[in-house]
Specification:
Four Helix Bundle (Hemerythrin (Met), subunit A), 2 domains, two-stranded antiparallel ribbon, 8 helices, 73% helix
Length: 217
């Protein structure tokens, strides 16, 4: 007796993935600011694709937290509310506390060097958007240095929303961000290298508090 296959046939990476990548990149580059409407007709014309892949791409970006859909407005780039910021900050704080603790216990010299490399990228950043990418690369390296796979996956699940958080921050105070972020992160890696968990946790908490206060001032 023939039984149906347990899983559906695999499909190649689809057009919707490419459309989602291009819209996401436009959001991260500042092309679509928070609150911008993302109209299917305009997007399909700009990318020379049908509306189907655009619709599917917007749904994917909605699941990532980068887009919101409302029946009377359609899709818009997420404009973080005070509640969004508070929830994201608290969740990020919980994940980061575990990451920092594990880094002080398990990171290798090579791990610390990779975190240092992200600070070097900050020193070379040409503009605020490049600085945001280097900022995220720093935290990527911290999570990698924790050597905890599920923790890294949890960070990956909110990473794009943190990117949006940082974009909102530079909209409010790009000059402050560009002036202080490299030095702040240089101090964070210095403290991490001491493997003093208490000092590192306090430094990372203060780093998050500064950003949170800017978005809630």
């Amino acid at each position: 007796m023939n039984h149906p296959p347990a899983v559906a046939p695999a499909r190649r990476r689809g057009l919707a993935d490419e459309v989602a990548d291009r819209i996401r990149e436009a959001i991260f580059n500042g092309g679509y600011a928070p609150g911008t409407q993302l109209r299917e007709v305009e997007l399909s014309a700009a990318m020379d694709v049908s509306r189907g892949p655009v619709r599917e791409a917007l749904l994917r970006l909605e699941r990532e937290g980068l887009v919101r859909s409302e029946w009377h407005r359609g899709a818009t780039v997420t404009d973080l509310t005070a509640e969004d910021v508070a929830e994201l900050d608290s969740l990020r704080g919980a994940l980061e506390a575990l990451a920092v603790q594990l880094v002080t216990e398990h990171a290798t010299d090579a791990d610390f060097d990779r975190i240092d490399q992200a600070v070097t990228l900050m020193d070379r950043a040409a503009d605020a958007h490049e600085m945001v990418r280097a900022d995220l690369a720093f935290h990527d390296a911290v999570y990698a240095a924790a050597h905890h796979r599920r923790l890294a996956e949890a960070w990956a699940a909110i990473r794009n929303q943190v990117h949006l958080f940082l974009l909102t921050r530079i909209t409010l105070s790009a000059r402050d961000y560009l002036a202080h972020i490299p030095a702040e992160h240089r101090e964070l890696i210095r403290i991490l290298r001491t493997r003093d968990a208490g000092s590192a946790l306090a430094a990372f908490a203060e780093h998050r508090r500064h950003a949170f206060e800017i978005l809630n001032s």
